[in-house]
Amino acid sequence: MKLYVWGTGCGAGDLADHGLEISQVCAFLDSAPLSDRFLGCPVLRPEEVENEEIDLILVASRHADAIAQKAEELGIDREKLVFLKNNWALTDRNRDYTAAESVLDPRYLDGVRAPHHAVRDPLWTEASPLAPRDLENDYVRVRSLEVLCRGLDEVPGAAAELGVYCGGFAGCINALLPERTLYLFDTFAGFDEAEAGGDNAGFVQAHRNTGADRVLRCMPHPEKIIVRQGLFPASLGRLEERFALVSLDVDLEESTLAGLRWFYPRLNPGGYILLHDFHSPRLPGVKRALRRYEAELGVRLPAVPLCDINGTLVLCRNLELNTK
Ligand SMILES: C[S@@+](CC[C@H](N)C(=O)[O-])C[C@H]1O[C@@H](n2cnc3c(N)ncnc32)[C@H](O)[C@@H]1O
């Protein structure tokens, strides 16, 4: 079987951690590869493989529509592709809108043309600064971020993300809070090896596939970004700052605890910390870290869970009551 995996990110890493025998894989495919090997296999551009050399391509990237289109351009048979992410997207059955355009409101037709989501767009998103691509990440997570950001007008402070990886979620924060400084904390070279341990080799290796320059280039307002590259909390240096919104997404227990200890006391009243993966059975250290931090404080922190893919918990700081 001539087997390929399209993608060299977390989705591809996940396959290795979920039983795919990597020695069966001829190559990983990536249109913009960051390295020429992934999990010991060669990484090729899709143009470098011929249709006849392929029996099966596992598409382990969320950019399913773009990959389907690229495969068609390259003459790769559609039935050789199995989409493992965003495979629920429906294709448009309507081939031609020209006749309908002369009789229907263009905004109505835009809605008809839009790709289908498992969750419908809410009515208040008409003027959203988010790009359709941002919503491919995790629809509920990104839309929840949007509604939280819309409620931050009265809350002063910067924004931050600890655990940035390729900057997909950081780009959403930057788009939604264009006036605020956004601190990005990451090694941009993956997890601390000692903390990650020996398990989940695919997951760990996939997170090395990034870089601070590459992340900065994807930010809609790069002038508002301050990159703090290195292992947190050492990467803080002498930073003095307060925050309105923090995304805490480092997956592992000790780094999550370090993030909570530093950011929670610096969160302004009315602000939020989005603690990603809190309900993820795969990353139990995140919940343990919060419980340890709460034990140190001697209180349960006010929090609201989201039903996004990895079970974010939104930690809140109370607004002071105005008694006048
Ligand atoms: C799951 S990824 C972040 C994903 C990103 N928030 C998103 O939604 O697109 C976790 C990131 O945390 C970073 N990380 C983990 N522990 C860290 C630490 N102690 N200091 C800096 N970065 C860390 C890793 O390098 C990795 O890029």
Model description:
By secondary structure, the chain is α/β, with parallel strands linked by helices. It has 2 domains: 3-83, Rossmann fold (3-Layer(aba) Sandwich); 123-316, Vaccinia Virus protein VP39 (Rossmann fold, 3-Layer(aba) Sandwich). 28% of the residues lie in helices and 18% in strands. The protein has 11 helices and 13 strands. It has helices at residues 10-17, 64-73, 98-101, 106-113, 139-150, 168-176, 193-196, 201-206, 212-217, 253-263, 285-297; strands at 3-6, 25-29, 37-38, 41-44, 56-59, 81-83, 158-162, 182-186, 225-229, 243-248, 267-275, 303-305, 313-316. Strands 9-8-7-10-11-13-12 form a 7-stranded mixed sheet, sandwiched between helices. Helix 2 links the parallel strand 5 (56-59) and strand 6. Helix 10 packs parallel to helix 11 (285-297). S-adenosylmethionine binds at residues 161, 163-165, 168-169, 185-187, 190-192, 207, 231-232, 249-252, 255.
What are the segments in which pLDDT stays under 50 over at least 5 consecutive residues?
none
Total count of strands: 13
CATH architecture of the largest domain: 3-Layer(aba) Sandwich
Task: Strand order, main sheet: write it out.
Answer: 9-8-7-10-11-13-12
Number of domains: 2
**Category by helix and strand content:** alpha/beta
- Ends: how far apart? 74 Å
Q: Spell out the helices and strands N to C.
A: EHEEEEHEHHHEHEHHHEEHEHEE
Query: CATH H level of the largest domain: which superfamily?
Result: Vaccinia Virus protein VP39
Question: Radius of gyration, rounded?
Answer: 21 Å
Helix content: 25-40%
